[in-house]
Amino acid sequence: MYADRSILSPALPAIQQQWDVSESILGLIVSSFFVAYALVQIPVGILSDRLQRRMLLLVPGFVVIALGVLLSGSASRPSYLLLASVVMGIGQGVYYPIQFSLSTESIPKSKRAFATSIINSGQAVGITFGLLLAGFIVPLWDGAWRVPFWIMAIPTLLVGLAFAVGIRPDRQNVGNTNNDSNGCDATQLDTGNVWSYRTACLCVINFCSNFGFFIILTWLPFYLEVDRGFGTASVGWIASLVPWAAVVGGLVMSWISDHARHRKYVALATLPLCALSLIAIPFDSTLVLFAALLIYGLVGKLALDPVLIAMVADGIPSSCYGKVFGVFNFSAMLASISGPYLMGWLSASAVGMNAGFYIASVLIGIAAILVMCLPSEADGAR
Q: Which residues on neighbouring strands pair with residue 106, listed in sequence order?
């Protein structure tokens, strides 16, 4: 899924040259994926709480993803590419509320963050593969930017077929649980209602931490090539510094989180480093740029995600996982919509793309303040 997403970013300069479109249009194409993705989150989350065989939804979801990837490579004009991005976003939007629900039910609380980090390492591998694949193929000839989409449509469809063959019943029938007869909105916990101040803060923190990540995911190759002067063939491996570092950072942070008394202090210790790394990206030094990308990978969104997911799961009953995780991931998708479009607008304006990294660092500062204000009662694997 993340390979499907990341192949568009190295192709943006070639698409701009072929169709003679502005950076704002490119930003709109990128954001259209995330708009569709975000709109699907909450309905799928509600539906997944009511189904006994939630994985059945994953099969048509991956078929739709594969169709969107294939249509992206076949688009003959910007409006068609935008439509294909919407199709792919709808398909991918099915996955996360279901995956978060199934995994958090199956994993013991004492290992929740670390196991989630292992699952999320697929994001880093997918981003790296997509960036390197597109970075290698796109410069070969005019119109070669289409080929990575056609290649990735095949394994995407095969994953859907694998789900169709290997589906088993859910671990528990969360749709018929008796501990939540009035629904998630009325569920009372030691920390209050399931839709509490704590849950709302975690959603805002999720938005803030994802803003910088999605401008890096969608615009970093373009920024490296157009603003920093790197060649198309090299931007893929430079951008891949972030996801590779995130594998290590995510495993370390999540292990510490599972063994800490309160998970929030793990997040609080890393957020300032994340903000500083974003501020350092625009520095006019290749060495500083590489160091900033490595540090962001170690402590940024991909490394922080397992900790935040565990914090959400610690504070809600399993009968509410689908709905709450749908809202939680929706908050991240708001960042994925606003961030890429804002970055495209900044690139087309006199302000420049550097301002996007500064804005992202300010949001990380806001996230750190909110983490400090979080109640700690439900944190940790006690």
A: none
